[in-house]
Amino acid sequence: MKVLVINCGSSSLKYQLIDMETESVLAKGLCERIGIEGSRLKHEPTGKDKVVIEENMADHNDAVKMVLDALVDPNHGVISSMDEINAIGHRVVHGGEEFSGSVVIDDAVMNALVKCSDLAPLHNPANIIGIKACEKIMPGVPQCGVFDTAFHQTVPKKAYLYALPYEYYEKYGVRRYGFHGTSHRFVSSEAAKMMGKPIEETKIITCHLGNGGSIAAVQYGKSVDTTMGFTPLEGLIMGTRCGDIDPSIVTFLENKEGLSAKEVDEIMNKKSGVLGISGVSSDFRDVEAAAAEGNERAQVALDAFAYKVAKSIGSYAAAMNGVDAIVFTAGLGENSGSTRQEICDYLGYLGVKLDAEANSKRGKAMEISTADSKVKVFVIPTNEELVIARDTKELLDK
Ligand code: ADP
Quick check: pTM over 0.90? Predict the structure, then answer.
């Protein structure tokens, strides 16, 4: 079975074609600037040269067509015909309370997705457009939806309710949902395998630290708490997002700076985080480089980031009454040994001991704690596309 995994943004479309017999990626790529001047497709067939095709893509239908053309192209293609694609798996950001697992997409699911769009106005409409485009260009090929929020649907009510008037939860679904669920699910299950234990016997804290970041408490294989909330703005300090702040700051800034609510929202999402504190960049590599050259604001941005992560880990060890393993994943979690070290320096009281030598390595799933560390610490590269493809295959095998 070959599964095409699609992750649609408002002006982008990322894809991977995965052969499920071997779980190997046949090709992957990205359509950028869809509907904007200068649109292009970057296509990377495994074992062949990368190509960049600059061609106008007026909408997502054009993008799906271009992806298919690239996949069957005699030179840089990897399949001989579109018929070899057995199914499509879509990453969908918000499944609200409707979806606690992946589903085969039908009319009822599409209606539910539209209903959830209110909760993720920037993301779900793009996901829906992507699904419709695939339906149009590849009619009859089954499509599945895999949700960022689904894994966190096991979070108990005491953890997902905000202390606001209850009617807002009932009327509008104002509650914590959590995101990056596909990644937290994947790395927690990989960690249990690396520990040689059934996941039902483990307490794992997973730290997905990329441009956006979130931490999850995974108790006996189920998410019981996570740092992102109603939107991906809550929780950790991120590349450009502020994470937890006193909500009164919003009205304070509106008054002081004469800003609209929308403008403050933009500032909290796009101009805050390590970018906001450091004034240097949202990319941790730039901020680390600036800190190394003595830039104090860059250093305090990194320190504040690690401190917040460490506090969140501590709170989840409390929530689960213990922790067996901590996992680092995503761009920063997988690649920045210094960040992992700075975070783990706070965790001695839990019995966490990092192995400096192992922590300096990169590139594969590995244990980075010492043999006598009470809590195991792992670096596990995340693979959300593979999870989406696996879920799609499993749903269709049924
Ligand atoms: P997202 O998927 O949320 O866009 P990624 O998981 O790709 O993000 O992570 C991107 C972040 O990871 C960037 O801020 C980048 O600076 C950071 N990153 C990647 N490699 C390194 C590295 N070697 N050292 C420090 N940070 C890194």
Answer: yes
277 and 138 within one domain: no
Look at residue 187 and tell me if it is in a domain: no
pLDDT at 184: 98
Q: Which of 284, 329, 360, 382 maximizes ligand 1 atoms within 8 Å of its Cβ, making it the mutation to test the pocket?
A: 284
In a domain, 398, yes or no: no
Give pLDDT tens digits for 249-263. Answer: 999 999 999 999 999
- 277-288 as b/e: b if 16+ CB within 10 A: bbebbbebeebb
Residue 236's Cα: distance from chain center in Å? 14
Do 233 and 336 share a domain, yes or no? yes
Report the catalytic residues: 148
Residue 154 lies in a domain: no
Confidence (pLDDT) at 250: 97
- Residue 10: the pLDDT is 84
Query: 56: CA distance to ligand 1 center in Å?
Result: 30
Q: Specify the DSSP class assigned to residue 177.
A: -
Tell me which residues of the chain have a pLDDT lower than 50: none
**Amino acid, res. 111:** N
Structure tokens belonging to residue 292: 């190394």
What CATH number is given to the structural domain containing 302? 3.30.420.40
**Same domain for 120 and 36:** yes
- Residues 232 and 374 both lie in one domain: yes
Q: State how many domains the chain has.
A: 2
How far is ligand 1, taken at its centre, from the CA of residue 132, in Å? Answer: 31
- Residues 311-325 have pLDDT tens digits of 999 999 999 999 999
- Mention every residue, 6+ apart, whose C-beta is less than 8 A from residue 226: 152, 155, 176, 178, 179, 180, 184, 214, 215, 216, 217, 235
Assigned domain for 385 exists: no
What's the pLDDT score for residue 6? 97
For position 390, what pLDDT does the model report?
98
Residue 183 alpha carbon to ligand 1 centre in Å: 15
**Could you tell me if 239 and 366 lie in one domain?**
yes
**What pLDDT, on the 0 to 100 scale, is given for residue 118?**
86
Reported as type and span, the H/E element at residue 331 is helix 330-335
Domain of residue 276 covers: 197-379
